[in-house]
Amino acid sequence: MKTPLSNHAPQRLGAAVRDVWLTAGVKSSLALARETRGQDIHVKTRAGEVFLSGLVDDYQRRNRALQLAGAVHGVIRVDSRDLAVRLTPEPPGAEEGADYRAYEEQQRRTEDRH
């Protein structure tokens, strides 16, 4: 006698497959982009939300990683609070401050959409 499968099992399997697919897509985008290639960026996905963690060289690369991850079709939201920028001996310049403000603005718009 066969045990009936839960109606939720196919949905959970589908969601898991989607998350693996999104993780692969984000990792590919990061590996192919010149700005993020070779950076120490880890990617995990849960329910369509991508979590970036690791260490990048500067704010420009961090912003680019966020942008690339968010551009992958199917990504609902990108959480990059665990993606850190390497500390430099000198304080961040005006360019990095502008990059950070642009990142914050993009993050706010992304959260407003969802």
UniProtKB/TrEMBL annotation:
It comes from the Bacteria. InterPro entries: BON_dom, Lipoprotein_DolP. Residues 87-114 are annotated as: Disordered. Residues 18-87 form the BON domain. Residues 98-114 have a biased composition (Basic and acidic residues). Signal peptide: none annotated. This is Phospholipid-binding domain-containing protein. The lineage of its organism: Bacteria, Pseudomonadati, Pseudomonadota, Gammaproteobacteria, Pseudomonadales.
